[in-house]
Design a protein that fits this description.
Metallo-beta-lactamase, Chain A, 7 helices, 224 residues, seven-stranded mixed β-sheet, six-stranded mixed β-sheet, alpha/beta, 15 strands, binds zinc ion, globular
């Protein structure tokens, strides 16, 4: 579904976003394995001729990366993440424990995670522009969590740095349950919203917020 100038939302367990460029498209986060099908379908019905040039991963949590296997095989995109997140995506290291122990379900989830064999083609650092997107390194949720700002439209794709409510009119703080350091994650969210003046805010969870100026002001007033 087209939701902004050049942005298509692929809903699933999380939000994946396809960005259409002149001659190709890029994807932000893949969702779970089954989301790959919806991503392929969205691409097919809107710009079948354009190649998927890159997949940019905001962070290593399974629900944001698991579709990579299918999409990688089908399109062979360049896979991009922050340098501090790469070990957790390729599984050469385990993510630091979360602040809050969230029990058995998460344990099973992580056993499943350890079976992934993804490759990263390019690592990025804070301030770098990659595929027309500026990288903001904002650790806290995970060590190498990033937000990506489209240099053309100033839309901000923020993964799990903040969430939004169901109506799409308020910004919610990052999840305490899933953060490796909630205090740092909250600070990161404030920093992101102070630094960028986005025309649209595209979180990994919740509804996109178009023209988020008021929502940002309300968030900063409440949390900063
Ligand atoms: Zn996450
Ligand atoms: Zn998430």
């Amino acid at each position: 579904m087209k939701i902004f100038e050049n942005v298509y939302l692929v809903p699933g367990h999380i939000n994946s976003y396809l960005i259409e460029r002149e001659n190709h498209c890029v994807l932000i986060d893949t969702g779970m394995s089954r989301s790959a099908k919806s991503i392929i379908q969205t691409k097919k019905s809107n710009f079948p001729e354009k190649s998927l040039e890159a997949v940019l991963l905001t962070h290593a949590h399974l629900d944001h990366i698991a579709g990579l296997e299918t999409l990688g095989q089908l399109y062979g995109p360049e896979v991009v993440c922050h340098e501090d997140e790469k070990p957790y995506i390729i599984k050469s290291a385990k993510l630091p424990p979360r602040e809050k122990f969230i029990g058995r379900t998460m344990g099973i989830f992580e056993i499943f995670m350890s079976s992934s064999g993804y490759t990263i083609d390019r690592i990025v650092v804070d301030g770098e522009v990659v595929h027309g997107l500026k990288v903001y390194h904002l650790p806290g949720h995970t060590p190498g969590t990033i937000a990506l700002e489209d240099m053309e439209t100033r839309a901000l794709f923020c993964g799990d740095i903040v969430n939004s409510n169901k109506k799409g009119n308020a910004i919610l703080p990052p999840s305490r349950m899933f953060a490796i350091d909630f205090g740092q994650a909250l600070k990161a969210s404030i920093k992101m919203l102070q630094m960028s003046k986005p025309t649209a805010l595209f979180p990994g969870h919740g509804k996109p917020i178009i023209e988020p100026k008021e929502a940002i002001e309300a968030y900063l007033e409440k949390y900063s």
